Amino acid sequence: MASAADQLAANLNLSSFSKATELKKRIWFTLGALIIYRLGSYIPVPGVDATILGQILAGHSRGILGMFDMFSGGALGRMTVFALNIMPYISASIIVQLLSTALPSLEALKKEGDQGRKKLNQHTRYLTVLIALFQAYGIAMTLQHMTGNGGVSAVVNPGYPFIFTAVLTLVGGTMFLMWLGEQITARGVGNGISLIIFAGIVANLPHALASLFQLGYTGALSPFFVLLFLVLAAVTIAFIVFMEQAQRRVVIQYPKRQVGSRMYGGDSTHMPLKVNTAGVIPPIFASSVLLIPVTLVGFSGGKSGGWLASIGQALSQGQPLYMVTYAAMILFFSYFYAAVSFNPEETAENLRKQGGFVPGIRPGSNTARYFDRILTRLTTIGGIYLVAVCLLPQVLISRYNVPFYFGGTSLIIIVSVTIDTMTQVQSHLVAHRYQGLMRKQRGRSGNRVGVRR
């Protein structure tokens, strides 16, 4: 039998959306914030020659700079105030989350509820500033030594004034985006940080589709192959949606207890465990680590030595060693991050304290081993799914030279953010519909009381 929430969700329609005034305000606020973000991605950093910089970065499109430029929606390639995008905040969040499982002080903050969460967020902001300062200084120093065709420098007036201005501008842009993302989360719809990354990735989608159709029009790709590619892309997206929503539901039973003459408890619920527990973190980590040698070789112009050049060539995208290493690192980070984000012993202990148990499994260590066994199997399936999705675009790019703008990481981010945002929109609609029903019910109760009087 469907629950009340499911029945309300099934009755939602366009009229329900038109009456949800609060939801419409949140959507307009979110759209306005994303427009501000896209406008800021075209404001250049003072003192940088955009033409020379574009020529230089064109040769690093397959390095780590190319991946970051994709996440920033081209802001890094244009060297704008949002060139660092929100990536320092993402790195800081991952570091704080990993440290919270290793340091007892941070682990204690996680258990303090809202107050502990606020302190962890504050630590994340401080770490974001440090990471942004380090990255901005590195970018400013690198820009001063970059030269385009004819030895023309990418910086108009190199020196300490440019370094100070560039660092201040880039760090300020990152901190503004962090604040903007928090405002979207609080006053808009969806997770603000995720939506900013989402907007950066999809910004160049029209250009990517136009390039694909142009290749088909000129005969570089056959029309059949273009059609097959579009069908394959749709099937891949559908597969990602299925896997991101797939979960294993572990049945949890609570015993009955008698208080006075009444009987409480005896309910049965479930604990959802996602198949892809680690999310998009493993591909991001694996891509960042593997693209570092390629980027170093690119900046050195191949003059750094034979061994480094050989490693960079072997680990370039499309090479067999890159494929094998990329798959192995995705699997490794999947197990590692799943172990960090889900603690079977802690979950089993909390369940025992609440009086719950898994039917057929003894509480305590047996339940912990049961959760660990399920998590290992789910992580194996999730890791294989990530490997398949992330390697498929690499094969298309390396073998068929398809201008596939979206890699596996970006596709997973797009699908995950879309699902999360639509879920929140539906939650707001259900809450609005429920409040309307409650007001009608109170009005009918008041009318019945007035009739009796």
TrEMBL record:
Entry's localization field: Cell membrane; Membrane
Superkingdom per UniProt: Bacteria
Main function: The central subunit of the protein translocation channel SecYEG. Consists of two halves formed by TMs 1-5 and 6-10. These two domains form a lateral gate at the front which open onto the bilayer between TMs 2 and 7, and are clamped together by SecE at the back. The channel is closed by both a pore ring composed of hydrophobic SecY resides and a short helix (helix 2A) on the extracellular side of the membrane which forms a plug. The plug probably moves laterally to allow the channel to open. The ring and the pore may move independently.
Keyword Transmembrane helix in annotation: yes
Record family assignment: Belongs to the SecY/SEC61-alpha family.
InterPro entries: SecY, SecY/SEC61-alpha, SecY_CS, SecY_dom_sf
Major place of residence: membrane
Keywords annotated in UniProt: Cell membrane, Membrane, Protein transport, Translocation, Transmembrane, Transmembrane helix, Transport
Membrane topology summary: Multi-pass membrane protein
Transmembrane segments: 27-45, 86-106, 126-147, 159-180, 192-215, 221-242, 280-301, 321-342, 374-396, 402-419
Quaternary state and interactors: Component of the Sec protein translocase complex. Heterotrimer consisting of SecY, SecE and SecG subunits. The heterotrimers can form oligomers, although 1 heterotrimer is thought to be able to translocate proteins. Interacts with the ribosome. Interacts with SecDF, and other proteins may be involved. Interacts with SecA.
Protein name (record): Protein translocase subunit SecY
Annotated HAMAP family: SecY
KW DNA repair (keyword) present: no
